[in-house]
Design brief:
mainly alpha, Four Helix Bundle (Hemerythrin (Met), subunit A), 2 domains, Arc Repressor Mutant, subunit A
Length: 244
Amino acid sequence: MTFWNCRLQDDTRGGRKAVLGGAADTASPPARRISLRDQAYETIKQQIVRCELRPGEAITVTDVANALNLGRTPVIQAIDRLAVDGLVEVMPRKGVVVSPVSMNDFVEIVEMRALNEGQAARWAAERASPVAVERMAANVEATWTAAKRGALEDMIDCDREFHRMLSGAARNAILTEFLSNLHDRSLRFWFLSLRAPDHNMRVCEQHAAIVESIRARNADAAEQAMRDHITAFSRNLTDQIGLN
């Protein structure tokens, strides 16, 4: 079953191109020089994650290239990467389509996150360096700050960075790579889930519990804290989209 219950921005300036162009115009200057392919990839991905490009919506290389003032080649390369992430699909005779969001996807993502991030938390408790633990703790403090300010985008960035840090602390490169792809496929679900202010505070508490278990080198507690965190994420999102 496909669902769509995300607040979309109104577009009165020329449809999809205006949405894409607006994101490029208001983005902060990058801290470092990135390739044109990466610029296209990040901009399109953020439009998909923030529900500004609708699931099932067709996009064309020409429209995107014109909106971003880029050539076709970096846009084609970006779309190839987005397809690997599961955010777009290349459909025969339809071109490029933003991937639908479905309950089947959601259930499978939750199952894989519980299994693999639970193991990552266990390994982090056994393997994380003291520096890695303190960086995760600092991230939790930044997440609290973002949650109290109601800064949704900062909250999402902190949340994603926390999970990246934790998978890195597990010290298994293959697991880290797998979880990175899984997180990219989770982005739209994260965006929907983190719109609930009360849930944001619970996320901070859950992240803190995970870090404290890792600091205490309690692998069982770390794995359970991560599983509890993912279960809460699942319940919150099903509440938001009205499936309970």
